[in-house]
């Protein structure tokens, strides 16, 4: 399914693509290679933001990974709020 471009959430398509998320996690955030990456949940509001949850397998261990996309300028404040509730 193709969605119209949304300038408020420019990385929306990357965050919705499990193969792209696996590449990003494998290359930037993890030393190990992601062997599976399945989108389990997505909530998208045009012009407002995107929430996505993936089930990710790394070396046979499965975890859930959450990501958010924000309109320009909202990311820094949202990141600071998220730090207070984040769990390892």
Q: Poorly predicted ranges (pLDDT <50, ≥5 residues)? A: none
Class inferred from helices and paired strands: alpha+beta
Number of strands: 3
Helix content: 25-40%
**Would you tell me the overall average pLDDT?**
85
Tell me about the biggest sheet? Answer: 3 strands, antiparallel
General form: globular
How much beta, percentage-wise?
35-45%
Radius of gyration: 14 Å
N- to C-terminal distance: 33 Å
**How are the strands of the largest sheet arranged?**
1-2-3
Q: What is the succession of H and E elements?
A: HHEEEH
Number of helices: 3
3D architecture notes:
This protein is globular. The chain has 88 residues and is α+β, with helices and mostly antiparallel strands. The N and C termini lie far apart (33 Å). A hairpin with a 2-residue loop joins strand 2 (49-58) and strand 3. The protein has helices spanning 12-16, 18-29, 75-85, and strands at residues 34-45, 49-58, 61-69. The model has no long low-confidence stretch (mean pLDDT 85). It has a three-stranded antiparallel sheet.
